[in-house]
Fold this protein.
Amino acid sequence: MNKPILITLLVLPFLMFSQNCDCETNFNWVKTTFEKNDAGFAYALESKGEQAYQAHNESFAKRIKSIEDPNECVATIKEWLAFFRSGHVYVGLAGPASTGNSETPSDKDIIARYKDSERVNVNLEEFTKYLEAKKEVDYEGIWVSEPYKIGIKKIKDEYVGFIIEADGVYWTKGQVKFKIKADNSSVYYLRDHSEQTFPSVELLSDNYMKTGFITLKRVAPKYDSNPEIERYFNAINANKPYFEIIDDNTTYLRIPTFNGAEKSVIDSVIAANKDLILKTHNFIIDIRNNGGGSDRSYYELLPILYTNPIRTVGVEFLSTPLNNQRMLDFINDPSYGFDEEGKKWAQESFEILDKRKGEFVNLDSTVVDITKYDTIHQFPKNVGIIINEGNGSTAEQFLLAAKQSKKVKLFGTTTVGVLDISNMYLITSPCGDLEFGYSLSRSMRIPDMTIDNKGIQPDLYIDKSIPAYKWIDFVTETLNN
């Protein structure tokens, strides 16, 4: 009989708001900021009605007054925001909830904020020996999902995942990161320790586990690997773009994000392999779980896909003093990745917006932008773009442009649908304990062609009989045939 492992669950007290930053204060700040600055507020109000909005506010005003736990407060504000739309809006804890410090929190502050999170105490040496002796293959083991190493141990009727290695700031050794319930549903705790629930957990093989958008690789005990699943794991967990040759007829480009800071990397990978792409019959672009970023990040792909003029319906920006500040951020904050040309555009845009406060402003000269290229390349003949429910925002904007090409077919499942109200701006509350993200622009496609809450459908739906790790092979075979 295997030696039992001693595991103790610790449930510790909640953090509390400071006296100056109670939940009602933060809620009222979010509500006022959203009403005055969000580009989709008026559209939602028109769609759902003033009376429904008043009733919505009344129900939340009563609940907010009694909330003292900051996590419960954030969850309640999120619920209030869901009245308007499902995406391009965000609220979360920004700093130590017990202080009014508006400065960026130190590592020490962050550790203090999460020190009372649920923990388990496990003797790692004994746990490893227990796993080595274990014959049954189940969820128990040591797993990796970058940047975390997680031990998973069955405790009563659920599997509990605990941190073995992490950044040591947001997550520390022993904290509970993951739970698999008796009904096979799961709870995964994100970087800010907020809950993300998923309906099911799947063992893709002895070495890989998937729940929602989270994929974990087993590192102990060790089992024989499956190359097909290894490739899937590498693709889904990539945080940088990369290129592969699938076969003599097919090349493959994985782009996990269109984040503006990744534009130069995306451009470099495309440039390094462009000659081969333009000589090969089929080209697969895998953007699964790409939640968006900057439109500029996909521009180098468009000439490769191009067969006819690409029509892009523009957006209007709501001009307010707070909203217009983002243009200055583009100029002054290097993390946005703006080059000199981009900074010049931002400065010119700021000057236009600043003169028209309170209005929706089209920063372009036309409603529709038409992109033309001099060359239609002979190859690739076929372009397959792999999509799923993890695609939204800029990724969906890329799909609207790409699918106008006669070469392109979309494979996978319907995207999430968060594009009509866009250009998110993240700000910090006056007390410094909340981060709030709202949207600055609305599409001029509204109301004739809306994407929000509908998504973009694939041309070829990949049904559930084809496991996710076989999608690349399915697309390859379809293009070759």
In short: The chain has 13 helices and 24 strands.
